[in-house]
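ok so i was messing around last nite and threw this chain in just to see what happens. nothing serious, just curious
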Amino acid sequence: MAVRLLTSDTIGKIAAGEVVERPASVVKELLENALDAGATKVSIAVRGGGCDLIEVSDDGSGIAAEELPLAVQRHATSKLSRFEDLDRLATLGFRGEALPSIAAVSALTIRSRPAESRAAAELVVDFGEAKALGRVAAPPGTTVTVRDLFANVPARRKFLRQLSTEAAYIHRAVAAYAAAYPSVQIDFMVDGRRVFGTDGSGDVLAAAVGAFGAETGQAVLALAPLEASAAVPSVEVEGWVGAPSLTRSHRQGLVFFVNGRWIQNRALAFALEEAYHSLLLVGRHPVALVHVRLDPAAVDVNVHPTKAEVKFVDERAVCRAVQRAAHAALARASQDVLPRIRFEPVPPASEPRSVPLPAAARDEGRNGRAESDETGTEERSVPAHPSGVPILRVLGQVGGTYIIAEGPEGMYLIDQHAAHERVLYEKILAELSGQAVDRQPLLDPLVIDLAPEELTAFERSVDELRRIGFEIEPFADGAVAVRAVPAIMRNVDIAERVRLILHELAEGGVGDSWLDAVAISTACHTSIRAGQALSLPEMRELVAQLERSAQPRACGHGRPTMLHMTQADLERQFSRR
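result:
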């Protein structure tokens, strides 16, 4: 094949693909430009997940009219003039690729006015083709409007996720910068609805609450300077970490900034989570916003087209500084902040936790008599369930997650979360079938702030949630008010579990119908969790309920509830065969 030069249009689209991965990339680049321009107020509005519209307005220094055409040309920047400037870079943008890359795959309009100018200049770029420069009336600052993103690159648009998911990516990026720059007032709107806003007062706590929700304000632990003996030379760590009571099921709540730049770094995330060792349940992750400041020459910011990743000269030292700062903050936390473990006595045998089995069922044990534990308390002994689950004798728990039980054919390991999920799922189905849903009203409505994709899932699932036992209604500014919950939702953090249910539904859910998907998600996020210690009577009751289930061998998501090792398997493992 002949070697040929690519056309400028093709080059622009390829370059745009490196910088503009999705709508959130556009918002991030434009927001960073606004911060570099010294803005004290930034307004961001998106529609259609950012594909239809992205508009970022700021009150920064603006761009002179004669410089606007140059601003949309590749490698045009005001942030550096020579390669050596990278060693002391103090701005968020420097490549000169953001605006031309965005302009190559969208209908872009830039309206800007420096404070000393009497009028604003407006430049329109239609999918890489610049139009005439005009004069318009506008306040000092810059407004960038992006429409029809990826309309000329349908292959790229095809690989985007659901609009609500794309809006959630944007929300995460804006929230990160809003919390990291408390002195900048940032307002964020999605589809005409105000999602959140910060006041720009400079108060770190107020910015955290505005960006991440009210629950954050009650669990923020400031990262203070370390003592000289523990400090890492040339590395400063600021910001805050959440108390162990504030957790997420994912790591998206871990936000890191290096010299003011938002980055993704697995090593830093791992180092931070190590400070929470033994403080969190399995599968839970902390929330934190950490600023790392060090000599610009000790970090390479020019290793990724979107500037999302950096390289450190001494990564171990940076990780060590982050871990020590987080550990110190957790150690300083008062006993009122750190979770307390309370040991409660097991109810006496005269106060069973559930309806006792009939005497006839108790008498039909394997040996024709009821079994007793060490205290003499009568233990259930019932025939095998028609589904095939044998009579099991609970022995204990391993790892706070798996129940060990003995059966007539060997040993069984039961996943307590999957087992309880199956039990609750069938209970929900039974209540729906009998049209007798048991719900628990709350004394006071519980207001919960939702992410955009969670709010979308709620709006789709209002009727199904009501049928299952929830009473939830829309509230102001992307929040909902919970007035009642299913009676099965006991002794749990209702706000956290509701978010988890809606988060799973936002990702598509699992089930034969949407009602089934809501039921499965509700059962999953209401059940006992892995890592939760259970008493022996609690384990026995859970196993008994599982034995009475119609389909006891898998949870609603299809995960197995138990594993079986036969007597022969055990003998082979111990070389008895």
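not much to say yet. Residues 416-434 form the longest helix (19 residues).
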